[in-house]
Design a protein that fits this description.
globular; two-stranded antiparallel sheet; four-stranded mixed sheet; 16% strand; alpha+beta
Length: 180
């Protein structure tokens, strides 16, 4: 039971996940412009199956730091996984699924099976956008010495809070709002 609880899939489905109007006419090539530590957008290259994977990681810092800058400035590793670009019509307005890892884990990308359900790749092929955040204090979200050294002042509040609604839940709400 405990193992299942640690791997519970948190699903938050929003009916109107949209892209900025300028991007609506062409396929989504990047996300979260201006919302990363560097301010750069996270690129979304397509995999061989067409699913687009946007991965924001520290990249060694500076202009390469594509971690999401949360509501309070803490950097979080993030994946935004998008359906294949449509052959015609508008790209966007996807319902959203949020996958949260268990204690000690991290966001693992489109083929990660830790979520006790479909992978992000499967969700994306079914027409959903998926967000995976590495929670505060784990891995590339201020959880390793290297990630803290890249942005020491931003990581001051980047410690584990055990799904505290004031932090981890708010982080999920914040990124959902940015994407909508």
């Amino acid at each position: 039971m405990e193992a299942v609880r640690n791997k519970i899939v948190v699903l938050a489905v929003f009916v109107a996940l949209a892209v900025p109007s300028a991007a609506a006419a062409s396929p989504i090539a990047h996300v979260l412009s201006g919302q990363t530590l560097s301010g750069s957008a996270i690129p979304c290259p397509a995999q061989s199956d067409g699913v687009r994977v946007c991965h924001g990681t520290d990249g060694g810092g500076g202009a390469s730091d594509l971690r999401l800058k949360t509501f309070d400035g803490v950097p979080l590793e993030i994946y935004v996984i998008l359906p294949p670009a449509p052959a015609a019509g508008t790209d966007g307005n996807y319902p959203l699924v949020i996958q949260s890892h268990g204690y000690g884990g991290k966001a693992g990308g489109p083929d990660d099976t830790q979520f006790a359900g479909p992978t992000a790749d499967a969700w994306a092929k079914a027409g959903y956008a998926v967000v995976q955040l590495t929670a505060r204090g784990f891995n590339d979200s201020c959880g390793t010495a290297a990630s803290r050294l890249v942005s020491p002042s931003a990581c001051l509040a980047g410690y584990i809070r055990l799904d505290d609604t004031r932090y981890e839940v708010r982080d999920a709400q914040y990124v959902s709002g940015l994407l909508a």
